[in-house]
């Protein structure tokens, strides 16, 4: 039996300076034939300029979605940051629920 209070799958989307590709990725995730409460999407922005807040905010109605921003530290650090935050309660700085 599934617990509806927490998603059972966390999808980490690391990104850097991809304002055109990110909406397509999030749109594809929103179109999955899976109930929204079964998965959470964590977008980790690795220091994009400009920040990707507006892209993520546009998808909040379609996904259980969180944004984490960090200074540019490379792909490994971005994946680790997303994996560490997936499933946690949102923080007041740098992430959104």
Q: Which secondary-structure class do the elements indicate? A: alpha/beta
Distance between the termini: 25 Å
What is the overall pLDDT average?
82
Strand order of the largest sheet: 1-2-3-4
Principal-axes geometry comes out as globular
- Unreliable stretches covering 5 or more consecutive residues: 89-97
Q: With helices defined by DSSP (H or I, 4 residues minimum), what is the helix count?
A: 3
DSSP E strands, number: 4
The gyration radius over C-alpha positions equals: 13 Å
Percent of residues in beta strands? 15-25%
What fraction, in percent, of the residue positions are helical? 25-40%
Largest sheet, strands/sense/barrel: 4 strands, mixed
Architecture overview:
This protein is of the alpha/beta class and 97 residues long. It has helices at 21-30, 53-57, 75-85; strands at residues 9-15, 39-46, 65-70, 95-96. The protein has a four-stranded mixed β-sheet, sandwiched between helices. The two termini are 25 Å apart.
């Amino acid at each position: 039996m599934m617990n509806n209070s927490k998603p059972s799958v966390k999808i980490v989307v690391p990104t850097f300076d991809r304002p055109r590709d990110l909406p397509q990725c999030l749109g594809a995730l929103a179109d999955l034939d899976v109930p929204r409460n079964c998965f959470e999407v964590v977008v980790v922005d690795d220091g994009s300029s400009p920040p990707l807040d507006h892209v993520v905010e546009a998808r909040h109605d379609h996904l259980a979605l969180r944004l984490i921003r960090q200074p540019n530290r490379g792909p490994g650090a971005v994946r680790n940051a997303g994996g560490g935050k997936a499933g946690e309660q949102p923080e007041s700085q740098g992430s959104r629920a």
